[in-house]
Amino acid sequence: MTLDADAIVERRRLRRRLYVWRGITLLLAIGLAVALGLFAGGGMSGKGGPHIARVTVSGMILADAAQRKMLKDLASSDAVKAVIVSIDSPGGTTVGGEELYDGLRRIAEKKPVAATMGTLATSAGYMTAIAADRIFAERTSITGSIGVLFQYGNVGALMQKIGVDVKTIKSAPLKAEPSPFTYPEQPGAAAMIQRLVDDTYAWFVDIVAERRGLQRADVLRAADGSIYSGRQALDLKLVDEIGGEDAAIAWLEGTKGIEKDLKVVDWSPEQPYAGLGLADRAMAAVGRLIGIDLSAWNSEGRLDGLVSVWHPQSSNLQ
């Protein structure tokens, strides 16, 4: 019986040791995952040394506070010697395009900025491009669509047919108009929206004329909403050169005196979790490693109000 009791005690000791080593192994694995996650998330991104920053503008363009901060950081970073804006976007909100335009112009006051067009750089995407010092487009890139739109629906007639009446009490006839429930349409509502669209369109045309060195009349002829290939845009002087990122780098080195063979480093806005603690950032980085984008849980993107976009319904809105 004494032997059996000693054996039981020894087994318990071995079990406790096994649990301790399992815990240590688990902690080491978590530490390794965190380190790898931080590395993948930009902990060693190469932003410390001299480099050319690449900013990618893709999908729907929206107002974005993190993006505004990134552009300010680019302007103030001594390590960033030049910026390449890689655009592949059908456009988006006019405010989103304006934010990008203003932010890139502030960068261009301190360092050279080049824009490259991918498949699409239309509407607010083109608004982004004209902020650069030089625009490069592929021969078959689609650009242009200079203009503004405001869309709204009206279900008032349908609601009348099914016997639903929406009562509205407001301070003035044009308050909250156009409304989807007002039928027939409130007099003056469409004219009010047209004035809004016309004013923003005039600003868009003006900055195209200013940035491209064109007469306003020439811009107006091109700014009828038409889209153009890269080759057509070159003929219209809406872009400067046919080429991609290699051509942009060659221009930066040959014309702007940027040191040869500088590394091109991707810059992107900090995700919503970036301002949280180390543990949260580490978890987000680990999530990226396994293919989970935790930033999607805090998306504030909205396509509302005035937009400058080409065929959003056929575009990738992710």
Automatic annotation (TrEMBL):
Pfam families: Peptidase_S49. The chain crosses the membrane at residues 19-40. GO terms for molecular function: serine-type peptidase activity. The keyword Transmembrane helix applies. The keyword Transmembrane applies. Keywords: Hydrolase, Membrane, Protease, Serine protease, Transmembrane, Transmembrane helix. One of its GO terms (biological process) is proteolysis. Coiled coil: none annotated. Residues 108-258 form the Peptidase S49 domain. Belongs to the peptidase S49 family. PANTHER family: PEPTIDASE S49, PROTEINASE IV. This is Signal peptide peptidase SppA. It comes from Pleomorphomonas diazotrophica. The lineage of its organism: Bacteria, Pseudomonadati, Pseudomonadota, Alphaproteobacteria, Hyphomicrobiales. The gene is sppA.
